[in-house]
Amino acid sequence: MSTVIENRTWRYATKKFDPTKKISGDDLETLLEATRLSASSYGLQPYHVIVVSDQKVKEQLKPVSWDQSQITDASHIIVFANATNFGEELVDDYLENVSKTREIPMDGLKGYSDFMKSKLMDLPAETKSTWTAKQAYIAFGNLMQAAAELRIDTCPMEGFESDKYNEILGLDDKNLNAAVVLAVGYRSEEDATQHLPKVRKSKEELFTHI
């Protein structure tokens, strides 16, 4: 079995973390760099990632996360917050980065700028928010798989009150909304879920080859 499949077979949604085990600084940096390098539409990355290690903040988040123990027991809670709306600055800021990184004059990027703005700027606000949340999920998936490669456990979580997260983490003032949460750490030996066979659709049911 290839390590690609091994890692994905090993990974499961950890229900009980060992609160005494913390992720090392080096491993955390690797996870965050994998997240930073994730693909996103046009390369725009219209989201922000909040890394929560402060136990007091985790205690605040637990009641608005359906009282799930992962929030307080995991080493870190990583919140992916999508931009709730955006204007031309999203494209302009990105292209300034492109210009600096690739040493391309801004004039040479005008055509690409006009193209992106023509596709994005006139979208309804609700569509913009949905699109940015989808982009956050791409990075979220990359982080989860990077963690599996390092044998770091994760639990993807949508069971939380996003408006309360926004309030606790001060996201409303930043035009951000908590879209999805990843608890990151190490499984407890007492977590019976780790011993259960993985349940997925069969290849025949899931895939169509044309």
From TrEMBL:
Belongs to the nitroreductase family. The keyword Lipid metabolism does not apply. PANTHER family: NAD(P)H NITROREDUCTASE YDGI-RELATED (PTHR43673), NITROREDUCTASE (PTHR43673:SF2). The keyword Chloroplast does not apply. This is NAD(P)H-dependent oxidoreductase. Its cofactor is FMN. Keywords: Flavoprotein, FMN, NADP, Oxidoreductase. The lineage of its organism: Bacteria, Pseudomonadati, Bacteroidota, Flavobacteriia, Flavobacteriales. Residues 10-186 form the Nitroreductase domain. It holds the Pfam family Nitroreductase.
